[in-house]
Amino acid sequence: MKIFGRVRHRPSPTWRQATDQAFSLIDDGRYDDAGALLTRAADLEPWLSESWYNLALLHKFRHDWAQARIAGLRAVALLDRPVGAPDWWNLGIAATALQDWPLARRAWQAYGLRMPAGTGSRSGEESARLPLGSAAVRLSPEGEAEVVWGRRLDPARVEVLSIPLPSSGRRWGEVVLHDGVPHGERDTAAGHGGGSVYPVFDEIELWAPSPVPTWLVLLEADTPADRDALERLAAEAGYAAEDWSSSVRLLCRTCSESRMPTDDGTAARDPHDHGEPGHPGHLSHLSEHASGDQWSPERECGVAAPAGLVRGLLDGWVADSPAARAWRDLEEVC
């Protein structure tokens, strides 16, 4: 058939059948079997960008970034439209995973993003960066999922700024590679008359680890202001503290993957407040402390700080108001 005077080949029924079967296998986690079918489809229709896009997508699921880059390059070479194709986005993710910064920059530009002028850095990473503000990322989306807050370094990476719970195996300050399509939103406008809506991306894998350990400590803080003072003190030292008692909520999977308010103490609670049968709940960090609960002085707090600093940090916090503050049971948990 012809589209605007150009000849396009319609995929054969055999190609469609192999592709459909492959994606059914992908849904079941049978990547090797799916790969054989998608390779066959690419052999049948090598001139179709979709053949190579599908293979690149499979390699992304397998975290085989070298093969994802190869298939992605073949896909974009066969594209009909010059800007905005998802093939470029997946290629950008693969290039970022491989730290191929010239290709990453080329992919984001070809997708339609305006990149800042290059800095001329020797590694090229700075020229591929595109700070995109705050976002949330779902750690371990197929396991004990936990939504944390972070700073987007570019279209495929988030630096984690919440202190993840130890069950996630992640730390404050780590950089994670994430998928391109948001899987939920967090609305900070609830209860405030204004705010912003932030996307929730699913983690693909850890991109850069953090050397800063996570500590669990029990606090005695007479007022929220006492708790806030510790978080401020840690931030001033270049690290972090987070009152997990008020910053983390358990959401059912459906609510976690939809738009959820995050700041108001009442609205932040999942109306279901449990995991669905057969589906564990998702932990979600709020963008601010919940204000709807009655204050309890005993708080379970996460602290991200080096071993040589954490006790001094806590002792300094107590020394500023010893009648209202205390800490005990410090434990490194991640």
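the 2nd protein, sequnce then structure:
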Amino acid sequence: MTVRVPAKVNLQLAVGPPRADGYHDLVNVFHAVSLFDEVTASAAGSATGSATGSGTGGSGVTVEVTGESAGEVPLDEDNLAVRAARALARHAGRPPGVRLVIRKAIPVAGGMAGGSADAAAALVACDRLWGLGLPAARLMDIGAELGSDVPFALLGGTAVGTGRGERLSPLPDAGPFHWVFALAGGGLSTPAVYAECDRLRAAAGQDPGEPAISTALVAALAAGDARALGAALANDLEPAALALRPSLAGVLAAGREHGALGALVSGSGPTCAFLAGSAGRAKSLAAALRAAGVCRAAVTAAGPVPGATVVSGG
């Protein structure tokens, strides 16, 4: 059972003050883009192809990883796909008994929710493999227990997330919109970026107040207006990501210099996202970024796209 699942870019990430539980209230406008991981679930002990990394991620779950930065993906209980399979098995009252193969194209620790995407794909793949037939709403609930970004990877499209980002409402989107993602070497820790955001705000005496959605961004999405959307892109975590990885400022500047309609750090970074006016302009911008030598790689994508989708074995 193979499930394809998209990366996300945060079109707006508004971050409130720290809560008592250590999380932050968010207004998080998610946008699913055509950069995909695939997760295949098969019966434990079944044969699969070669993998860059493999391991036993807990009782009854074996995981293998190939593709983009596969060597950086954990193969134990820190792997969200492993945790997803085990959580679903607990819900169903059955042993996990599954082999997962993850084919990576979404950057690891890149601010595009690759780990959460893999968890969403594992939920869908194991649900089908085990014949559970759980409703989408129940999978969303299980996903929310695993991580704030998992429910959106199940939903896809464009949506606003509130609370920790897990409470989702779809947004009208008259895309497609065309993107370039500049991939950095190495990752950034999401908890470290949030901690730096809090530190920078405290040092500046800033009170962020309660987060609110941008009406300009919502209107641009509904109208399919790429230029207006580019002007409305915003990420409250960007100053923290730049403080921890100053070289990202040069990446953003290069994208703007070469014609991006909008530029921002994606989520907690370090991937930088650039909005282009067309597929052709996205291709040209990616080539310019590669030639400038400011990133490890530059890839193009479009959105919105659907969430986790069965592509074979269903």
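Confidence is low (pLDDT under 50) at residues 47-52. The chain has two domains: 2-170+305-312, 177-303.
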